[in-house]
Write the structure tokens for this entry.
Amino acid sequence: MISLAGRDILHSWGKFVFTGVGLGLLIGVTLVMAGVYRGMVADGKALLDNTGADMWVVQQDTLGPYAESSSINDDLYRGIASMPGVEQAANITYLTMQVRKGEADVRAMAVGIAAGEPGATPGWPPYLVAGRHITRGHYEAVADIATGFQIGDVIKIRRNQYTVVGLTRRMVSSSGDPMVFIALKDAQEAQFLKDNDAIWASRRRTESNPAFNRPGVPGLLDAVIDSQSTNAFVNAVLVRLAPGYSPEDVARDIERSKRLTVYTRADMEEILIGKLIATSSKQIGMFLVILAIVSAAIVAFIIYSLTMDKIREIAVLKLIGTRNTTIASMIMQQAVALGVIGFVVGRITASFAAPLFPKYVLLMPMDAVIGFVAVMVICVLASLVAIRMALKVDPAEAIGG
């Protein structure tokens, strides 16, 4: 039974091998697509892990700071830090933008970190692969190596230039953009401070508004103008809990007293994975279904073609008394062999192609196991069409030829 399938494969080995390679490329794309989704989930979890925070305090009724914009006053962290159960609280800002180096630019997330120490202050990169951390209050940066920056490079963020003093790894946003860490004051200026022309235009509009030119309220106009040009805002406050306190209880206390929204680690994972990348995961799922259908169609077609090419041989087998189960097994073994070749080629292709993608692709062994089982099931089901046709062959065709 095995020799029948093997001899038939050797008889048309060229078509069989090339079909297996083509199927393998499809399987490789399927594995890479699954790896893209796994990579998106891993990026989201890495983002949360790297902050070193247990809770995120954001603007009320928003999904900030990653899924939505959030803006709160930068002095709120003091009151939060003094609440029971809070070991440490630190301001942070996030701004996805184009960071320029010379004539080129890189899509990155500029992160403003509060003054402190690595490992002690939430928001700081937990480790470096080269260089040092930020020690000055202005114009120094630590960049993820995925940006392509090197120590000593001068980069431009908005109007200011920064010197890269350290490099880190796997510090990325939820969308996979590498991070560039700068001092909080610099990040606030980059995100919230208006340029001179915008401040001048805002001042003129305010001066022309009669509501702010009340004779009995001196200094009101100047106060309004100052408030319009300030940059005393951050996107979130990162909170690290003291041992023995429940995140839910502390979050409830902060929300009640500060009128802000607080997310625990579980809440933030739900936002990132369940909401932020939900649409992308659905698209990837649709692609996987389409690729599975195409793969099944290819296997069915090639097995059907191979069966059609040996109709006379099948009739001869029936004429000499070969059982239908033996013929069906021969066809099914060919389909399974085609699937094995395709999976091996696909797994190798995915392994070599994954590092070439601009975003992180995580190939998990369990996904490979599930993929192998799925390929075998698809091949077995695709062979049923050819088996059904082969069992209908009349033994008399061997004589009538």
